[in-house]
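Incident log entry.

Two folding requests arrived from the same account within the same minute. Monitoring flagged them as a possible duplicate submission, but the sequences differ. Recording both here for audit purposes.

Request one:
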Amino acid sequence: MTPARPRSAERRAEILRAAFEVIAERGYRGASLAAVAERAGLTQQGLLHHFPNKAALLVAVLEERDRWDTGGSGATGRAAWRLDLLATLVDYNAMRPGVVQTFSALLGESVTDDHPARDFFTRRYARVRADMAGVLRAEFGERLPGGLTPERAAPLLTAVLDGLQYQWLLDPEAVDMAAAFRDFLGLLGVEEGK
């Protein structure tokens, strides 16, 4: 007999995949718990057994997306990255447009005061900026070639990563996200594989 805990974790993962799909298609506001439950092959009550409300489901989806990006290592995994290896994350994202689209749509929606993901994204960006400052410091020391500190440059690096995603989603034929990020690294003087 299979223990209940692994089955529960498996069911939870199925719900998160279904929620990602539904949110990608309809946006957070247009995604209902009933639609997610149906996609996951559950009743709405069954879904509520795993996630007490829509906001809890949304935050779990976003946390899972971050785990995918860091190979399950969470925020500490990013801090150990080299700047040139961020290009591998961009390559990975280019292979999963649905995930990037869902994240980007939720990020855009979250700027409103009442959005349930606003706190998540606020905390996430504080962590990402700190992680990117660490990555930049490891590459350049206390000053980048243009004179900025890693802390001053970290929001710019983050903006390039996220801004390329939006441009790529809107016009993938015109914007090669991976190539554009490598071009940006070249502007910083970073050699790939260094």
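Request two (distinct sequence, not a duplicate):
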Amino acid sequence: MSGAVRTGDGHGRAGRVLSGLAVAVGCVLFLGGFAWGAVLYQPYTVPTDSMAPTIGRGDRVLAERIDGAAVRRGDVVVFEDKVWGKVPMVKRVVAVGGDKVACCDRGGHLTVNGEPVEEPYLADKGPASPTAFTSTVPAGQLFLLGDHRMSSLDSRVHLSDSDHGSVPRGAVKARVDATAWPMKSFGMMPRPAAFEALPGGTSQPGPLRLVVISVVAGAVLILGGAAYGPIARRMGRRGRGGTAAVEGGGARV
């Protein structure tokens, strides 16, 4: 009579079911996240340093496709306007239709409707603009400036145009939500607090965080579920080896 040790296969079957479920759910999250992101977001490469240090030359950004009506002060947007050259440009919205925007007050600040705006994102430590200007933004238009005011060609260059340097809201193609590349610059685009107190406030970030979480969670589930099989087989071999040792060493009566 031998003292053989036997184990059932119930846990093994349950493990295989759970690992398959994990892979299936992971595929849904991973592929669904990518599809969701592809529908809502478009990547752009910024060719100049006009938005430095917020966005550097050559940086890759992710911009949410939005309607121009959703744009708020402080947003960094991608737009195209034939007067500006009909090529995609990236600038920051500092004033909207009906605003009077000017620079600079005695403290060197940009003002919107007479209220000074703190702009911690600016590249330069001096005044918010090296050249003084004043403009009243027509209804349905946007006034845009680069964060690198010393080198940016923006609404200040077009002040003599019929729209006083502004562009139509309909020219906006997308709103920048994050810098994606290079990795040292990776991060979400913050909404400037200085614009929150103005009428309309600031915009809310898009669902990019949820998209990233979905993709990452899906990848983890796929890898975890796929790894179950090899791990279970290895553990099974170790278990069979232990059983054989018990059988071989059993006493005979």
